[in-house]
Amino acid sequence: MATLKSKMEKCHRKGEKKIEAGAAEIIASKATLTQLREFLDVTQTEIGDILDVGQDTISRLEKGGNNMKISTLSAYVEA
After folding, report:
1. How far apart are CA 35 and CA 77, in angstroms?
2. What's the CA gap between 1 and 48, in Å, rounded?
3. Are residues 39 and 71 in the same domain?
């Protein structure tokens, strides 16, 4: 008989796989940073906190107002 813990772990793994698959699909479709962030259900402020920048910086990045460094883009996507 499965324990509650094992059932919860199974659901967690399914959820992670679904999120990873959805994120990969969005990236493959050349989605915008905004679409990726919204799919992951996080705010600009939350991304800014992770990257140690302000919400206004994230807004500019999403609007394409800056030429961003590859390291910044990589950190954004990993966040």
Report:
1. 11
2. 45
3. yes
Question: Tens digit of pLDDT per residue, the chain (79 long)?
Answer: 566 666 667 766 776 777 777 767 666 656 678 888 888 888 999 988 988 889 998 888 888 755 556 566 667 667 6
Note down the domain range covering 19.
Answer: 1-30
pTM of the predicted protein model: 0.49
Same domain assignment for residues 7 and 45: no
* Whether 41 and 72 share a structural domain: yes
The total number of structural domains in the chain stands at: 2
How many CB atoms are closer than 10 A to CB 44? 19
